[in-house]
Amino acid sequence: MRIDILTLFPNMFSGPFDESIIKRAIDRQLVSIVIHNLRDYTSDRHRIVDDSPYGGGPGMVLKPEPLFAAVEAIRGEAQIPVILLTPQGRLFDQRAAEELATYDQMILICGHYEGVDERVREHLVSDEISIGDYVLSGGELAAMVVVDAVVRQLPGALGSEASAGEDSHASGLLEYPQYTRPQVFRGWGVPEVLLSGNHAKIARWRREQSLLRTLRRRPDLLERINLTDKEKRFLEKEAAAGSR
Ligand code: 9D3
Hints:
Number of strands: 8
Strand order of the largest sheet: 2-1-6-5-8
Bound molecules: ligand 9D3
Number of domains: 2
Oligomer: single chain
Helix content: 25-40%
Strand content: 15-25%
Radius of gyration: 23 Å
Order of helices and strands: EHEEEHEHEEHEHHHHH
Structural class: alpha/beta
C-alpha cells in the first residue's frame, strides 16, 4: 500500500511513523508513506496556500490550486481515493479502517484554518473522514490516527505475536482485564481463576468480563454484535442485577 499525505505541517509527521508497528510495516515494505508539503505545489512567488473567505467572515480558507496540483501530480491518470480529514466527515471506526486497508493506494488531505475551498470537496475528494466529535487544530493528527489504524490491518504488520482480528474492536467487545506478575502488588491480588490453570474456565471468565465491561461502559456496542443465547441470558441477568 502507498499513502500520500498532503499537509502544511510536514514536520508533524516525523516521530509517530518512526516507531513501533508503522515503522516495522515500512521496513517490511508493506506500506510506503510519502509526506508532501502543500507549499511545494504553489506556483506564485509567495507560495500562498490560503486566502480569506468570499462573503467575509473570520479565518482563512485553503485555496484549491495547490491541492489540485498535488493530487494530480501524485495520481497522474490513475483513479485513487482522495480522503479529506475534516470535522464534517463520516466518523472513523474499525469498519472504516478495514475498508481503507483494502486500498492499494490513497491520498490523505489534512485541512487547516477554517476549511478548504468547497470545489476541492466537490471535484477532487472522494471521501471525508472525522475521527471524533472534538475540535482538533488541523487534520494532521487525524491523518496519523487513520494511518495507524489502517496499517496495522495490513497482513504481516503485526508480526507473529498477534493478529488484527484479535483486537477488541474487531470482536466488537471491550477487552477483558489483564494481569501480570507480581501475584500480589501492594496487597492487591489477581483473580483466582487466572491462576487455576483451567484454560476452559479462564476463557469463559474472560468472555464474561468482556461482556460485562461492554455492558457497563459501551452498551451501544452490544447492539452491533452477534451473541449466543447463553451470552444474552448472562447479560440480561447482569443488567437486571446492575439496575437493582
Ligand atoms: C470555526 C469552526 N470550526 C468547526 C468547529 C472549524 C474547524 C475546526 C477545526 C475547522 C477545522 C478544524 C481542524 N480539524 C480538522 O481538520 C479535523 C478534525 C477535527 O477537528 N476533529 C475530528 N476529526 C477531524 S479530521 C480533521
